[in-house]
Amino acid sequence: MGVEFNPYDFVQADADPYPVYARLREEAPLYRSEELDFWALSRHADVVSAFRDATRFSSANGPLLEQRAWGPQARKAMSFIAMDPPEHTRMRRLVSRAFTPRRIAELETGIRAIARRHLEAALERGEFDLVTDIAAPLPTDVISELVGVPEADRPELRRLADAALHREPGTQEISQEGATALLELVGHFAEIVADRHRHRRDDLASALLDAAVDESSLTDEEIIAFLHLLVGAGNETTANLLGNAVYWAWRHPDQRAKAFDGRVAGWVEETLRYDTPAPTQLRTLTEDVELHGTRLTAGSRIMLLPGAANRDPRVFERAEEYDLDRDTAEMASFGSGPHFCLGAALARLEARIVLEEIVDRVADYDLNPSAGRRRQSIHIRGFASLPMTVTAP
Ligand code: HEM
Q: Domain residues for 272?
């Protein structure tokens, strides 16, 4: 029987999608899902060239397959990740004026303080949940710090961000509660932007108001949509990268020994390659395109599978092995071309700091994944809950 790929199939897509990815790459490099009306590309060369070809592989309907997220309205909630050049270029240039490498690097001390606070509280309890106690709250707090959300409002922002991303079991659509939380979240950002109009501070919200390129600057609406994109793109991805890193090192004691021996950067990079938290991105064809001998018509939806590309043996030797020492330069986890992840440096910094703090404070750890829970989402791969115990040094 031919290979069947359904990203909504929990067992196939969430528990372990890699056997299906391998079959897609070998047996159906251009896969067709009639039921969900998309084509899928899984080979590294195909995924990367589609990412780079924004003229034919458009983001104008957004990068998500979910029914309510897909379509020309996507940009309202998802800002420039759902735009093509030249509109995308303008927005990204403006935002990059504020979201600078210097601003990210300056966050290091703040991120370490946040990581220590969550980790110390967890260690004091002895038994804790890596995801709900540390990995999930941390990126939300970091984005709050970056954007300039007042300390007192941060727990509320975390609650709203969580609720906005919540999906009822068995459905991929946003719940009513989620939709309300989303509106409240946007309201918070609108208040911050209104406040910064009156008093600028040393934060991203103020820097976005000041950003200008060739007479053009960002409108309040554009800033609010971008802040919303940061919450959507920057929280769950980073949280799941941390969960996946701790999980895979637990499954491979020899690699965990390397991590505890100081190879934390390799731990982050190899986890990104081996089990990326963002395994699927959608595109829409702007013109007819021939792929693997089949002519696809303009308007076709193409699912790119960086999660499959990252294990393509044409690019990575022993691709199915988790190895902290390998060269991961070709990984497709942050995309490629014009939409290359704006937060890649921040995600790497957050993951490195948390893992360094764990390595510094504990001799070893144990996990109980069967008491935990995988996330049910076609866009995000990782754990919603992962109970952990540690051995003191
Ligand atoms: C491990 C963590 C992360 C992964 C795996 C990841 C992955 C990605 C991928 C694959 C894309 C490209 C989407 C596309 O081509 O359609 C992307 C774009 C983006 N990411 Fe990330 N991301 C991560 C963390 C973050 C963080 C921490 C932030 C910000 C705080 C962030 C902000 C963004 C933004 C703003 C875009 C849109 C860029 C554009 O359209 O020009 N990401 N990310």
A: 10-391
Our answer on whether the CB atom of 379 is closer than 6 Å to any ligand 1 atom is no
**Looking at residue 50, which CATH number applies to its domain?**
1.10.630.10
Verify cis geometry, omega within 30 degrees of 0, for the bond prior to 137.
no
Q: Is 259 exposed, middle or buried (0-12, 13-18, 19+ CB in 10 A)?
A: buried
- From CA 96, how far away is CA 345, in angstroms rounded? 13
Q: Is residue 4 in a domain?
A: no
Check residue 57 and report its DSSP letter.
Answer: E
Residues 6 or more apart whose Cβ sits within 8 Å of residue 212: 94, 97
* 280 CB within 6 A, ligand 1: no
> Looking at the 3D structure of the chain, how many domains does it have?
1
Residue 271 and residue 352 in contact, taking contact as beta carbons nearer than 8 Å: no
The chain-wide mean pLDDT, for the chain, equals: 92
CA atoms within 13 A on the CB side of 384: 12
Q: Please, where are the H alpha helices in 211-280?
A: 220-234, 236-251, 253-260, 264-274
Per-residue model confidence as pLDDT tens digits over 325-334: 999 999 999 9
Is 59's C-beta closer than 6 angstroms to any atom of ligand 1? yes
Ligand 1 atom closest to 282 (CA) = 16
The b/e string for 89-104 (b: 16+ C-beta within 10 A; e otherwise) is ebbbebbebbbeeeeb
Distance 233 CA to ligand 1 centre (A): 5
Establish how many alpha carbons lie within 13 A of residue 101's alpha carbon, considering only the half-sphere containing its beta carbon: 1
In this structure, is the dihedral angle defined by the CA atoms of residues 222, 223, 226 and 232, taken in order, positive or negative?
negative
The pLDDT tens digits of the residues spanning 282-299 come to: 999 999 999 999 999 999
